[in-house]
Amino acid sequence: QVQLVESGGGLVQAGGSLRLSCTASERTVSPYAMGWFRQAPGQERQFVAAISRGGGFKDYADSVKGRFTISRDNVRTVVLQMNNLKPEDTAVYSCGAKEGGSYYLTARGTDEYDYWGQGTQVTVSS
Hints:
Layout: E1 4-7, E2 10-13, E3 18-24, E4 33-39, E5 46-51, E6 58-60, E7 68-74, E8 77-82, E9 91-98, E10 115-116, E11 120-125
Parallel strand pairs: 2-11
Antiparallel strand pairs: 1-3, 3-8, 4-5, 4-9, 5-6, 7-8, 9-10, 9-11
C-alpha cells in the first residue's frame, strides 16, 4: 500500500503557472503507473494526465495537452507542471497510483487506480 500526498496548489491568475507534486509518504512510486485527475464543484472526477511505470509513456486530456506536463521527479514524487492556466482549470487535483499492469501502461479511468491522495485546490482567476 502507498500513501500519496499532493502539494503545490493555490490561487493564480489566468496565464500563470503552478507545479503540483504527488509524493509517496513512505514508499517509492516507481512500481506504479501514476495519474492526475481533477474534480470541479458539481462535476465528476476527470482525467488530466498519466505516466507509465517507466516514465516513457505519457497521456494527456485534450483540454490540457500542450499546457500541462507530467513527469517523475524522483522515486517518490510525480510532478504536474501546469502552464498557461485558464479559469476552467479550477478544481481539486488528485493523484492516483495504479498497481500492476504493463510497464508501458497509462490509464485514464478513475476505477483503474488503487490508491489516491486527498487532493490540492487549484483556483485560476480571470
